[in-house]
Write a structure and sequence with these properties.
- Strands 1, 2, 3, 4, 5, 6 and 7 form a seven-stranded mixed beta sheet that branches.
- The N and C termini lie close together (about 10 Å).
- This protein has one domain: Maf protein (Alpha-Beta Complex).
- The chain is of the alpha/beta class and about 190 residues long.
Length: about 190
């Protein structure tokens, strides 16, 4: 089955490759990732964004294929933490997460083209972040490891102050691989 990954995320590319999938990449347009709609929960947000990415790429797929699209965000107390805009924004996120449990949600859409029905699912993982000192926060911000990462951190960076409590690490990194395998097996 020909797979098309609708993502520019290097972490999703890496997870797909490590899982043994052969795929090509088609980038969704920036408009496919419009922001939060009013009264939308975090699971609804990631499901909608994954669906929008798949639907955005679909008209450009010219032969039979299966589009895989995903969106991942961190959430704390109902507040969505996307990718930080700058260092100040990253610091705000890290201080909010410090010493607290939070969730990471991934919306995953599998869309057979042409003419298939989209399958959209949401996975949740929970993490505990240790309480960080001001020096730890400054050192982390100086590293710029927060750039481009939802919630201003990357679980794959093996920070000693992050602990996975429930769910899967690949979901936190940006692609729930077991869920994807299940969704693809339903197509065969």
């Amino acid at each position: 089955m020909r797979l098309v990954l609708a993502s520019q995320s290097p972490r999703r590319h890496q997870l797909m490759t490590q899982a043994g999938f052969e795929f090509e990449v088609m980038l969704p347009s920036e408009t496919a990732e419009c922001g939060i709609c009013s009264r939308e929960s975090t699971p609804e947000l990631v499901a909608r964004l994954a669906y929008q990415k798949a639907m955005d790429v679909a008209p450009r797929v010219t032969s039979t294929a299966v589009i895989v699209a995903c969106d991942t965000v961190a959430d704390i107390m109902g507040r969505v933490l996307g990718k930080p805009e700058d260092r100040r924004h990253a610091e705000e996120m890290i201080r909010l997460l410090s010493g607290r449990r939070h969730s990471v949600y991934s919306g995953l859409c599998v869309l057979p083209v042409p003419g298939g029905e989209p399958d959209v699912r949401v996975e949740k993982s929970e993490l505990d972040m240790a309480r960080l000192t001001d020096d730890q926060i400054t050192s982390y911000l100086d590293s710029e490891a927060w750039a481009g990462k939802s919630g201003a951190f990357g679980y794959q960076d093996n920070h000693p102050w992050l602990k996975l409590v429930s769910g899967t690490a690949d979901n936190v990194v940006g692609l729930p691989v077991a869920t994807l395998r299940d969704m693809l097996s339903n197509l065969q």
